[in-house]
Structure formats: C-alpha cells, structure tokens
Design a protein that fits this description.
The structure is a single chain. With about 160 residues, this protein is mostly helical. It is built from seven helices and no strands. The longest helix has 28 residues. It starts with a helix and ends with a helix.
C-alpha cells in the first residue's frame, strides 16, 4: 500500500474519532480535514464525483432517525461530514474491498458498520432508543447492503461502466 493510502487510512480514523467525540462542536476541524484531503489526493476530480455517494448514507441514517432507531441530542451535522469522509475512503484506503467477493463485503459491512454505531453509542454520540442489540441488528442488515453498494458504485464512478 502506498504512502497516500496509509495516510488516508490514518486520517480517516482521526476523522471518525474527531466526529464522534467532538460532534457539531468540532465541525470546523472536520471541514478542515476534508479540505486537506482535497489538497493532497491524487484523484481530486474523481473524489469530487464520489461525494454524491454520501447522500445514500445520509439518507439511510436519516431514515433510521425518523424510524426511531437513532436519536441525537442535536441535529447531527457531524454525521454528514463523516459520510463525506467515509465515501472518500472507499476509493483510497478501503480500495482493497474491490477485490473481495460481494458476500465478504456484505459481511464486513454488517460487522464493521454495526460496530461503529455501537462504539458511537458507547461514546455518547448517538442514542439507541430500541436498545443496543436490536439497533445493531438493524444497522448490520442495512450495512450488509450498503457497503457492497458503495464499493461497486465507487468503482463504477471512478472507472466507468
């Protein structure tokens, strides 16, 4: 893995932690980190195209909020920024996912997606009115669909049909 992918992987982890711990209060830091990505990415034009995929994640999370699976103390603008950073990572530090069979991507989505929201709950970034287990189950099912969709769509946008 080249230096950019390692840097991008590390910066996404910092971004995630900053978003979950700082939430809306640290939104300027999150926007600065997104700006840094665009200053240093080797694929700026493609990365701009990929940002549209964040709306899918935002829509899924918005639906979960409306359905009462998630609850936030304030509108989670930070979560939208996190989705932008996540979709940017798919074509860089998570590019290895392209080589996996769809069922492995789905399994990773189910496990890692639900784990991320579980940890976010433990850190106080989100409330889970249904409880952690039912919420994790719902998130796992959605992420088993969402991650393969994002990976395949990212590839299609970057390389064409």
């Amino acid at each position: 893995m080249n230096r950019w992918r390692w840097l991008q992987l590390f910066s996404f982890q910092i971004f995630w932690l900053t978003a979950v711990l700082g939430r809306n209060q640290w939104l300027p830091v999150l926007l600065f980190l997104l700006l840094l990505h665009f200053l240093f990415t080797p694929t700026r034009i493609n990365d701009l195209k990929i940002l549209i995929l964040a709306f899918l994640g935002i829509a899924v999370d918005g639906s979960l909020l409306l359905l009462g699976v998630f609850k936030f103390s304030q509108p989670p603008v930070w979560l939208a920024a996190l989705w932008l950073a996540f979709v940017l990572s798919i074509g860089h530090s998570f590019v290895y996912l392209r080589r996996l069979k769809l069922y492995w991507i789905a399994a990773l989505g189910a496990v890692c997606g639900s784990y991320a929201y579980f940890i976010s709950w433990k850190l106080g970034a989100v409330e889970l009115p249904l409880g952690p287990m039912p919420s994790s189950f719902v998130v796992a099912i959605l992420w088993a669909i969402l991650l393969p969709t994002l990976v395949k769509t990212d590839l299609w946008i970057r390389e064409g049909p």
